[in-house]
Amino acid sequence: MRRIRHIAICIVLLAPLVAFAGEVIDGVIATVNRKPVLQSDWDDAVRFEAFMQQKPLRSVTEADRVSALQRLIDRRLLEIQMSDANHLAPSHEELRANIAQLREQIPAAKDDQGWKTLLASYGFTERDIEANLRGEKQVMNFIEVRLRPNVHVQPEEVEAYYREQVIPDMENAGIKIVTLQELEPKIRELLVQQHIDQLLDAWLHNLRQQSQVHSTVPLKMQSSSSGRVAAGGN
Length: 234
Fold this sequence. Notes:
By secondary structure, the protein is mostly helical. It is 55% helix and 7% strand. It has a three-stranded antiparallel beta sheet with strand order 4-3-5. Strands 1-2 form a two-stranded antiparallel sheet.
């Protein structure tokens, strides 16, 4: 649940608007406090989420696209709360480390040519991926800084989770029971993240109520906690 915390356009799924002269029009798909969310922003978010999940573009559904737009709008609402465009942004070194870690998780991306071919299949360059990761990490950092101080996990919560969730899972898997003392830090952090997600849902709900959000696409604005407002769910 650590996720916190999204992208050449697939012609079949993401057909652009075309002017009479053949010029591609990057239309406004939504506005957040009068600030536009462009069709290209949406296309980028959809492709980036598919890339992070290693999901073929051809299998992206309309529901996937709408969910990506919902998360993109939520990110815009949070970005408006930041003091400046570079607030809590990760360093270049952090981003390079994140990309290296990402490549290690994808067999086809371990050599440079395979990595470039994979990126091209989603319409990206490495710089595009770095820019998307920067935006995600910045929002995740912002969420952590704002919400973590408000979370207090009690010892009885940790004990209850260990007793009711962890022990049954270990017994069902037929593995040796690990003690609460050994697992306490991981369980505590898991519960902290769950509480942060609950606070995030409430915060986003309030921001939506207080903001002017308009979309040409029908939105349900469902809970964002399953993936926070990020694409990869990391």
